[in-house]
From TrEMBL:
Belongs to the class-III pyridine nucleotide-disulfide oxidoreductase family. One of its GO terms (molecular function) is oxidoreductase activity. It comes from the Bacteria. Its cofactor is FAD. Residues 507-567 form the Rhodanese domain. InterPro entries: FAD-bd_OxRdtase, FAD/NAD-bd_sf, FAD/NAD-binding_dom, FAD/NAD-linked_Rdtase_dimer_sf, Pyr_nucl-diS_OxRdtase_dimer, Rhodanese-like_dom, Rhodanese-like_dom_sf. It comes from Pseudodesulfovibrio cashew. This is Pyridine nucleotide-disulfide oxidoreductase.
């Protein structure tokens, strides 16, 4: 029996659900409506168009075989009726109708449905700042924003820019301005780090330092108070601490689910926005489905409601909804929260909970940081990778892994491997013994993921007791107190320069000589062990433990992490 499916929203989830359903029920009718003239575009590609990595904005709205995804394409190729510049104003659940209004003429109409899909997405969070409507202030929410920004840059109208917010879009836009165009770029963030709540302060500091080395300036713990301009164009950003010159301003303060129409229809919504759905992506009305950036799903680690506005999730959910519209019972169990963001030659990636997120969710958790080569140590193109694992103490459950490393596939591949099993509540041993493809050009025989889990195991056993570069910095800054004895476990050739720069404070006993030189290592101070990555210093810790030393601290990540973190030795 044929159906009429109505889809509100035509960017990511809407087209995917509509197309999947039509493949399963080609005899049924689908109507997709959207209040914009632009539909089915890759919004996540906008920063890369601004940067010049994507040469033409049309590519964001084209298929892989270069067909423009416009209403004509959907009608002729997919068999879907699309009404653009048409705003859904009300859902009449009793009569199963959607009331719509033409954006251009104001004309109203009603569209009947058998089943309805709400794919209204989200809107950029506006801060309500004076001057927010000045020319040159953008939110980077659609290809039109990207085109205006890039045209202004190409015309030489932008020599300095201010980004408000240091999340995904903020960092990607900062790279776009500073890297391709050489624009003086400043990021203002109300929190005290980049990627707040997603990565630890240690990894955040590494990423911040890398971006600063590429010309981006950061101001943390600051609130933007106003935007000022001349002749209708933005020229300044006023914070609670300073005034910044700006010919372009990007506000990337997060997004808000477009769920008001659902709430008005009596659907179950979160108090801060977003439509609650079940594992089949149904709302509390069995004939109405919802997904993408306007839906609230379940976090599979905390079992609490989660909001994760990502294009990848919207596309996967679209297929689930398409199946279920056609009578299927495909499940979308929830999310673990996986991400990756490129920052010049490096990137952040993560899955699951950070240590801060784990503690906020009530887990008794610890984290360990490992710095190790991403492939065999003898392979010429090896690079160091920094991975942090969060584990629950009592159960040894792995709650998340985040990393900072190169912008290639090596790190995100490790993160994806963990993401695939997180919903099954893996424990340390599951990752310690995880089978991963190996060849020297791609990995080490003991992969960094295996080694990271082994480090977590050793930490919980109490045989690898230490801190990361953040903890090292605190001790180093307090070195004049004399409470710590900094012992470099590398060979003298590696340690000599640091001993010269820090006479009487930086000491050297190679790990292999420790038993013969115990008289040089005090027992009444905190012995802080350092090597290149934390491996030899771990061996040194075991040796000192065996000899009865009680105050031994291993620096996880070693000198590699200390340098990435930016400690001045």
């Amino acid at each position: 029996m044929s159906q009429h499916i109505v889809v509100i929203g035509g960017v990511a989830l809407g087209p995917k659900a509509a197309c999947r359903f039509k493949r399963l029920e080609p005899g049924s009718r689908v109507t997709m409506i959207d209040q914009s003239s632009l539909i089915s575009y890759g919004g996540c590609g906008i920063p890369y168009y601004v940067s010049g990595d994507v040469s033409d904005a049309k590519e964001l709205s084209e298929t892989s075989f270069h067909m423009l995804r416009d209403p004509k394409f959907f009608k002729e190729v997919k068999g879907i009726d699309v009404q653009i510049l048409t705003k859904a104003t009300k859902i009449d659940r009793e009569n199963k109708q959607v009331e719509v209004e033409s954006v251009t003429t104001g004309e109203t109409a009603s569209i009947s449905y058998d089943k309805l899909v709400i794919a209204t997405g989200a809107s950029p969070r506006k801060l309500g700042l004076p001057g927010e409507d000045l020319e040159g202030v953008s939110y980077v929410s659609n290809p039109g924003d990207a085109t205006r920004i890039r045209e202004a840059i190409a015309k030489g109208q932008v020599s300095n820019a201010v980004i408000v917010g240091a999340g995904f879009i903020g960092l990607e836009m900062a790279e776009a301005f500073a890297d391709m165009w050489g624009i003086e770029t400043t990021v203002v963030e109300i929190m005290d780090q980049i990627m707040p709540r997603l990565v630890s302060p240690t990894l955040a500091k590494m990423g911040q330092k890398h971006m600063e080395e590429n010309g981006v300036t950061f101001h943390f713990g600051e609130t933007v108070k106003a935007l000022e301009g001349e002749n209708g164009k933005v020229t300044r950003v006023i914070t609670d601490k300073r005034t910044l010159e700006a010919e372009a301003v990007i506000i990337s303060a997060g997004v808000i689910p477009n769920s008001q129409i659902a709430a008005d229809a009596g659907l179950n919504c979160h108090e801060r926005g977003g439509v609650f759905v079940d594992e089949f992506l149904r709302t509390n009305d069995p004939d109405i489905y919802c997904g993408g950036d306007c839906a609230i799903v379940k976090n599979l680690i905390t079992n609490q409601p989660a909001y994760l506005p990502l294009g990848s999730m919207a596309n996967r959910q679209g297929r689930v909804i398409g199946n279920n519209l056609a009578g299927g019972e495909t499940r979308f169990d929830g999310v673990v929260g996986s991400f990756v963001v490129k920052m010049f030659e490096s990137s952040f990636a993560g899955t699951g909970l950070s240590l801060g997120g784990a503690k906020a969710a009530g887990f008794d958790a610890i984290s360990v940081l490992l710095t190790q080569l991403d492939r065999a140590h003898f392979y010429p193109t090896k690079e160091l990778m920094n991975l942090e694992m969060i584990v629950e103490k009592g159960t040894r459950r792995v709650l998340g892994v985040q990393g900072f490393g190169s912008s290639g596939d090596a790190m995100v591949g490790r993160i994806n491997a963990v993401a695939a099993i997180l919903k099954s509540a893996p424990v340390i041993e599951d990752i310690s013994n995880m089978e991963l493809a190996y060849a020297p050009p791609f990995a080490a025989a003991m992969d960094i993921l295996n080694a990271l889990a082994n480090l977590a195991d050793n930490a919980l056993r109490g045989i690898n007791r230490g801190v990361g570069p953040e903890g090292f910095k605190e001790m180093w800054d307090d070195r004049e107190s004399g409470e710590c004895f900094f012992l470099d476990c590398r060979e003298n050739a590696d340690a000599a320069a640091f001993m010269e720069r820090n006479p009487g404070q930086w000491h050297n006993v190679p790990q292999g000589e420790i038993y013969d030189r115990l008289d040089e290592i005090p027992r009444d101070k905190n012995v802080v062990l350092v090597c290149n990555t934390g491996a030899r210093s771990y061996e040194a810790q075991i040796m000192l433990d065996e000899k009865g030393y009680e105050k031994v601290i291993n620096i996880h990540g070693g000198m590699a992490a200390i340098k990435k973190y930016g400690v001045d030795l």
